[in-house]
Structure formats: C-alpha cells, structure tokens
Amino acid sequence: MKSIQKPIVIVGAGFAGMTFALNLKNLNPSLPILVVDSATNFIFKPLMYEVLSKEIRSWEATPKFANIFSDAGITFLRNCLTKISFKENILEFSDDLKLSYQYLVICTGSIPNSFLIKGVDENCYFFNDFHDLNKLNSFLKKTLQETESHKKLFIVGGGPSGIELACKIEDIFTDQFEINVIEKSNEILNKNKIFNREQAEKAIEKRKINVLLNSTVKQVSETKISISSEVGITSLDKDIVIWTAGVKPNLSYLETGEITKKLGRILVNNNLQIENHKNCFAIGDISVIEGMEDLPITAQVAMQEGKHLANNLELLIQGKDPLPFEFEDNGEMISLGIGEASISGLGFTLSGKLAFEARRLIYASKLPDITESLKSASSWIFQKKSIFKKFLKKDNSN
Ligand SMILES: Cc1cc2nc3c(=O)[nH]c(=O)nc-3n(C[C@H](O)[C@H](O)[C@H](O)COP(=O)(O)OP(=O)(O)OC[C@H]3O[C@@H](n4cnc5c(N)ncnc54)[C@H](O)[C@@H]3O)c2cc1C
Question: Tens of pLDDT along 59-78?
C-alpha cells in the first residue's frame, strides 16, 4: 500500500469528476480528496431542455457542489484552473493559488465549437450550460411579447441537441417561430440508434419543423445566415440562430505541445493515464482513449470512465496493476418535445409519454448520490417510481 501525503485533486466536477470522486470516497473513505470546480453548481445537462420548457425548475437540475460534496465528506473548492506544471506536480488557479497533488484527475468538459466559421461566435446562441440557457430563454421570452409571429429560427446541427431543442421550442412557442434545422449530412441523428432516429423524424414531421439536409453554414451575420447546399450558396433572413453543431474540449489551461493530443483532445492510454505522466488522468469530454476514438462524447461515457478510474486508482494505491477501460453501451435516450421521449437500448425500445417518464427516472437512478439533493428538493423524479420499477431494476444492473 502506497502512502498518500498530498491530496488526490480532481479538477472539474461534472459527470466524470463527480462520479470519480464519489466512487473513490466510497471505496476508500480515508483518502484525502479535493474537488475543484470553477462553478458553484453541478449541471445536469441532459435535463436542460426540460428547464427551458419549465417541466422542471432550474434548481432541480443544478444541485450545489458544496451540498453534494459535504454530504459525501469530500472537500470542495471553487476555483478556476489556469496552469498545470506536470514536472513539479503543481496546479495554478485564477486567484494565484498554487496547489500540489499526488494524483491529478482533469475533467473540465467541453465548450461549443464554432469551427472558426465567420460570425458564429458573435451572432449565434448556444446551448451548452446555464448561462447559454438563460440567454436563450430571455430572447425567446422577449419574442413572446412581440406581436409579429413566425420569426425565423435556425438550429445548426441535426444531432441530439439540435433535434431535442427544435421539438421543445416548437411545443413551448406553438406557431411563434418557423423552425429550420440545418444538418450537413444526409440524415438527422446520424450517429444515433435507428429506433430513436425514426421516432425523431416522426416528431419533427408532426411539428412541421423544416430540415435542410446536406447543408453547411458558411457565415452568420446580424440579420442573415448563409447556407451552402447542392443548389449553391443561399443567404436567408434570420431572427435567431442556435448553434449546436459540435463541441471542443475545454483545455484553456494547457500550454501548446505540453501533452499529446488526438482529435484535439487529451490522449490517454486504456488505463485513462496521460502519456508520460502516470500520476495524471484525463476523463470525460476532454480526453480520447488510444484505440477507442469512436466512443461518443456523452455523459454515459464520462460516468463509466469516472467509475472505472476510481477502481483503478484504488488498485494503484494498493500497489496493484490497473485494469483497461471497457465501454458498456447502456442505450440512448432523447427527449422529443414536451412530455415525450424515445429510448433505445437496455434491452428495449420505448417512445412517447411513457418513455418521457422512464427517461427522467433512469437519469435519477444513474446518479444515486447526486440525486439525494434532487430527491429531497423535488418530487418529479420519484413520483412514478412504482410504475417504472422494471426499468430501474434493469438499469441498476448495468
Ligand atoms: C444540452 C445538452 C444535453 C446533453 N444530453 C446528453 C444526454 O442526453 N446523454 C448523454 O449521455 N450526454 C448528454 N450530453 C453530453 C454530456 O452532458 C457531456 O458529455 C458530459 O457533461 C461530459 O462530462 P464531463 O464531466 O466531461 O464534463 P462536464 O459535465 O461539462 O463538467 C465539466 C466541469 O468542469 C468545470 N470546469 C471547466 N473548466 C474548468 C477550469 N478551468 N477550472 C475548474 N473547473 C472547470 C465546469 O464548471 C464543469 O463543472 C448533453 C450535453 C448538452 C450540452
């Protein structure tokens, strides 16, 4: 057994960091664990659509880190990482604080990727965190007060975020917007399960949302959006453009060339260790595992990595060899408008209202420790528990 004098420091307490910290504490309660995050609240990102539609209240999807970690007996510090000195094992933060670590886990998530397309950063709305959500919400609310209807709304990206957002906005603001989804490939949800894609296509058709396939955005100005398609470049009037076309890792604290990257993300081996820095690990959206480059950038992957790394670190501390990470596909869920969703995987497919309730319950059961604070504060997650016992049972066995 190795002795631990300095703390195990986790930077970023999202799905990956939170799962890692809580699991490690459970495995070895005596370890000194310090969690640092620049935010005060955890964001349950898959439920941001329900916050927009007011199906749940914002505080229900954003429990406070301080509460979660003090309940678990883990020290939490609010601060923003600005630099890592890998050789000296020292972290630097925005208020000039310096911290040394014995083991470091970085998991700072992702931010929207505008792919350097002209005008996107300045003229588009995003939907990646609560700041984006509040900004979008204010714009949409302001629009509600205006008399003119059928404002032109474009959503760029026909992946889950774009489709879930399009259906939700149409259900909230019936006929207020003409909604157009722009997708560069030849189908929406092209990386998702066929069942969910089919359900999404039906949901989109039912809501009369336009989908422009094989189309890419060239430029966005204050009043126009330029789209390239097989008919050439078209410039269209727009009232709002929401950009959901991709994300990139949030790595502003890394110096260029400091560590090996692949696909722009930190390259880790299958033990989730950073090359040449065996006491440092990167998990969640910021990293890519050598040989597993096709893994989706999702909370499901981030949480599995967090859990696996907790087991591995405990093995390392005991002087044993770590085990390689293996991904287990537990299925996929998408919301499709108010009160509707689609689920594929976990051995079944389900759509409509039942899927909507099951989705919320499955999310809650995935995060038992985090949702203690949600459970005590809200009723929606557990009110239908008896109906969904079979889903919970199936889900918990994963
Ligand atoms: C709207 C939306 C819906 C989604 N829906 C789904 C879904 O249905 N299913 C699914 O599996 N995935 C979904 N995802 C993707 C999923 O949310 C991400 O893959 C997941 O959050 C990644 O986890 P993470 O721990 O890597 O990063 P995050 O959960 O983003 O956490 C990163 C943390 O790092 C902190 N941080 C960042 N920089 C610093 C710094 N310099 N110093 C200190 N702290 C820092 C942040 O404050 C944050 O708390 C969705 C994403 C979005 C945006």
Answer: 878 889 998 898 888 999 99
Rounded to the nearest angstrom, the distance between the alpha carbon of 223 and the centre of ligand 1 is: 31
Using CA positions, which residue lies closest to atom 23 of ligand 1?
15
Do 168 and 205 have their domain in common? yes
Is the Cβ atom of 112 under 6 angstroms away from ligand 1?
Answer: no
Nearest atom, ligand 1, residue 16 CA: 25
Cα separations in angstroms, 77 against 6, 23, 41, 80: 16, 19, 12, 10
Closest CA to 27 of 43, 8, 41: 8
Residue 54: inside a domain = no
300 burial type by CB count under 10 A (0-12 exposed, 13-18 middle, 19+ buried): buried
Q: What is the C-alpha separation between 388 and 253, in angstroms, rounded?
A: 43
Q: What is the pLDDT of residues 117-150, one digit of tens each?
A: 999 999 999 999 999 999 999 998 887 677 666 8
For residue 211, what are the domain limits?
Answer: 118-245
Tell me the pLDDT band of 385, cut-offs 50, 70 and 90: very low
